[in-house]
Amino acid sequence: MSRWPRPLRTRFRVAALFVALLLTLSLVVRLALLALHGAWPGARRLLEILAAGEALDVLAALWLAAPIVLGLTLLPRAWLRARAARAAAWLALGAAVYLALFVAAAEIVFFTEFDGRFNFVAVNYLVYPTEVLTNVWESYPTGWILLALFALTVPLVLALRRRTAAATLTPLPLRRRGLLLLAYGALLGGWTWIVPTDLARFTGDRVLDEIGDNGPHCFWLALVGHDAPYQGLYATRPRPVVARRLAALLRGRDPGAAAAALAPIDARRPRNVVVVLEESLGADFVGALRSDGAGLTPALDALAREGSLWTRAYSTGNRTIRAIEATTLSIPPLPGVSLVQRAHSKRLLTLPESLRERGYRTLFVYGGRALFDGMGSYLSSNGVERIVDQDDFPDDAFRTAWGVADGAIFDRALSELDALHADGRPFYALILTVSNHRPFHFPVDHLARDPALDGRRNAVRYADWALGEFMRKVRARDLAADTLFVLMGDHGARVYGSARIPLASYHVPILFFAPGMVPAERLDTLASSLDVPPTILAWLGLEAEPSFFGRALSAGDPGGRALMTHNNDVALLRDRKMAVLGIHQRAEAYACDGELDGCDRELAASLDTEELVADAIAYYQGADLLYRSGALSAEAWRGPLPARIEFPDRVATVSLGALSGGAAHR
Asked: Which pLDDT belongs to residue 113?
C-alpha cells in the first residue's frame, strides 16, 4: 500500500486500474491492427504512430473512466462496507471490463471489413440491431467469442478485487473525495483541450492513420457528426462565389442535346425503367471490367456485350444508402449520414418523383426490411408508390440476416413488373439485392458452392446467376421491348488500400441495357453513380431535372468527374487528380497515378490544384446549402417563384439565391 501514491491508496485505485486496463487493451488492438495491415512502417514512424495513439488512448480512457470516478466520489464508505452493495459494485465493474474487452474485439472485426476504426457505418449499424446482430452471429463464431471474453473478464475482475479490496474500505472524507474529483476533472478537461482530434492523421497513409487513432474516440466523433452540417467543419467559400462556381460546373447540360446524342438511329426509346442495385458488386469481380477478363460474373459479362457499359464509374460511398441517394436524388454525398436517413428528406425532387409526376407507376423491391437505414421511409416520401420488402415473401423463403436470397427477390420483382406492364402505364422500379453480403449464405439448389473460392466469391457467383436468370426471364416477356434496365453495383465489396480515398473500392459496373434502343458500347468517360438519373431521363427522351447534379453521359463525352465520401472526407476526382476535403477545413489535392492504384501522392499547391479544390467546395458546400434551405424539394422547383436564378442553359427555379444569402422559396 505504501508504494502507491496517496490518492491511489484509497477507493480511487479501482479507477486507476481500469484506466490502465483500457490503455493496455488499446495498445494490444493497435498492434493487432498493424499486424492485420501487413505493412509495418519504419521504426521512427512506428514510434510516432504509437505516441500519437497513446495520447488519444489516454483521452478516451479518461472519459470512459469518468463515471467510475464520479461513482467512487459519491458513494459513502458505509455503503461500500455492505455485502450486497459491494457485490453490486463489482458486478457493475465486471460489466465495464467485459464491455471494454468486447469493444476491443469488435474493433478488430470492424477493421477486417472496413480497413478503419469505428466510423459513421458503426453508428448507423447500431440503429438497426436486428440485421446487424443476426449478421454478426451468422458470420462469426460469436458464441465462442463472447464466452472467451467472459472467461477473460472473470480473472481480470478477481485480480482487480484483490488489488483494491483493502483500498476501497480506506477512510476518505467527502471533502477529500470532492477535491480528487475536481483534480480529475481538471486533468480530463486539460487533456481534452491539448489533444487535437486529428492527432493521428499525419502519416499520409490512410490505414496507418486509422490504426494510430482510437476506436471509442472515432466512434464519438462519428456520433456527434451525425447529420453534421458542412458549415463549420469543412472548407467553405463565400456564398456568392459558391453560387457562381456551382452554376459554371453544371453548365452545358442541355437535355435536348443530351437526348439527341444518346438516341439510336431509329429514334426508338424505352417507356419503362428498372434499376437493379447489386449489393457489394465491385468492378474487381466483373470480367468485362478486368484486364485479364477473369471475373466471377459470366451473366453480367454477356449482358455487357449488348449494352452500354460504363467502364470508369465510381459509387459515391461504401454504403447501399449512398447508392440509393445518388441514383434517386443525383446529389453529391454530403458529410455525415446519407440524406436517405435524415428527417427532412421528404418530398424532394427525386427521379421516382419526377417520373411519378409524368404518370409513371413506381415500385421498390427489397429482400430485407425496408425500414433499415430509413430506405422505405425515404422512398415512400419521395415518389415511390409501392414497396415490397421482407414481410411480403413466403416464410419458407431462404433468408439471412439481410433478407431473402436474390433468386426470390428477382422472382417477386418479375411478378410485380408483369402486373405493372399489364396496367398499361409506364413504370419505374428499383430492385435492391442482398445475397452478396456477409455471411454469404445462399440456396444451393441451382448453383453449388465452389470449394476453391471463399464465401464472398461464391456469393458473387450466386448473385450473378440470379441476375442472369432474371434477365433471361425478362427477355422472354413483352415488357422487355419497352424497358430500359440499369444494372449496377451499389458499392465495392470492401474498403481496402492505404490511399486517403481508396479509389479501387469505389469502382463499380454500371450497364444500360435495352437492345435495339441502347447501343452496345463501352463508355470510358469518368462517371459517378449520381450521373445515372439524368442519363435515364435522357434515354427516355425527357428533360433532366434542374436540381440534379449529375449529367447525361454518352459515347464520345469529354472527361467527366466523380464525387465520393469516405469516413469523414469528401472528394472530387477529375483528370486523374483528386481534391479531398476533411474536417477542420482541411483541403488537399492528390495525384491518381494509374487511377485505380489509388490517389496518395499529394500535389503541391498550384493554380490547377487550387481550382480543383475550389470546385470540390462548390459541389459540396453548394449541395449542403441547397438541401438545408429546402431548395431541393419538388415543391420548390414546381411552384411559381417570385425570383429566378439562371443556371446557364436552363432556368433554375430556386434558389441558388439561397446560396448568396436569400431565403429559399418553399
From this structure: 76
C-alpha cell at 266: 431509329
DSSP collapsed to 3 states, 409-478: HHHHHHHHHHHHHHHCCCEEEEEECCCCCCCCCCCCCCCCCCCCCCHHHHHHHHHHHHHHHHHHHHHCCH
Burial class (CB in 10 A: 0-12, 13-18, 19+), 287: middle
Q: Is the pLDDT of residue 464 over 50?
A: yes
Q: What tens digit of pLDDT does each residue of 483-516 get?
A: 999 999 999 987 766 677 888 889 999 999 999 8
Q: Quick one: 239-652 is in which CATH superfamily? A: Alkaline Phosphatase, subunit A (3.40.720.10)
Q: What is the rounded average pLDDT for all residues in the chain?
A: 86
Alpha-carbon gap, residue 490 to 333, rounded angstroms? 14
Per-residue pLDDT tens digits for 132-150: 777 778 888 888 999 999 9
512's grid cell? 444500360
Please check whether residue 629 is in contact with residue 649, taking contact to mean a CB–CB distance below 8 angstroms: no
Q: Is 489 helix (H, G, I), strand (E, B) or coil?
A: strand
Does 356 have pLDDT greater than 80? yes
C-alpha to C-alpha distance for 73 and 506, rounded to whole angstroms:
51
> In what helix (H) or strand (E) does residue 488 lie, and over which residues does it extend?
strand 483-489
pLDDT at 79: 76
- Reported as half-sphere exposure (CB side, CA atoms, 13 A), residue 631 has a value of 29
Distance CA 552, CA 534 (A): 5
pTM check: above 0.90: no
* Residue closest to 133 by CA, chosen among 125, 123, 141: 125
At which residue does the C-alpha cell 479501387 appear?
504
Distance (Å, rounded) from C-alpha 211 to C-alpha 56?
A: 11
Distances (CA, A) of 208 to 198, 358, 392: 13, 51, 45
CB-based contacts of 178: which residues, under 8 Å, 6+ apart? 73
Grid cell digits, residue 450:
465452389
Find out whether 326 and 510 touch, Cβ atoms under 8 Å.
no
DSSP state of 319: S
Conformational region of residue 145, where left means phi above 0, alpha means psi within -120 to 50, and beta covers everything else = alpha
Taking alpha carbons only, the member of 391, 493, 456 closest to residue 130 is: 391
Sign of the alpha-carbon torsion through 338, 340, 341, 343: positive
- Give residue limits of the domains in the chain: 6-224, 239-652
> Distance (Å, rounded) from C-alpha 590 to C-alpha 310?
24
Burial of 84: CB neighbours in 10 Å, binned 0-12, 13-18, 19+: exposed
d(CA 203, CA 215): 18
* 161: nearest Cα among 15, 25, 14: 14
